[in-house]
Backbone:
């Protein structure tokens, strides 16, 4: 499993088959919540989004920050 983050999207790709399980635009995200074993995405309108499993706390904190940077950059600098 691979979670790919760009300045526009976040997606989960199954590495064995190279298939995308889910793909979300950062502009569709309302909030991201850190949990004990990963992160939960809530979509705009309050719809539950996917759960991103990240067992390691330092890895979870780092990835959370990277998502925040992507969301901030996209929301404030899109043309």
Residues:
């Amino acid at each position: 499993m691979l979670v790919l983050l760009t300045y526009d999207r976040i997606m989960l790709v199954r590495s064995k088959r190279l298939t995308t399980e889910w793909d979300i635009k950062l502009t569709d995200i309302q909030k991201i919540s850190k949990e004990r074993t990963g992160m939960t995405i809530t979509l705009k309108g309050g719809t539950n989004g996917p759960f991103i499993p990240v067992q390691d706390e330092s890895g979870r904190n780092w990835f959370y920050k990277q998502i925040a940077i992507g969301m901030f950059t996209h929301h404030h600098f899109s043309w």
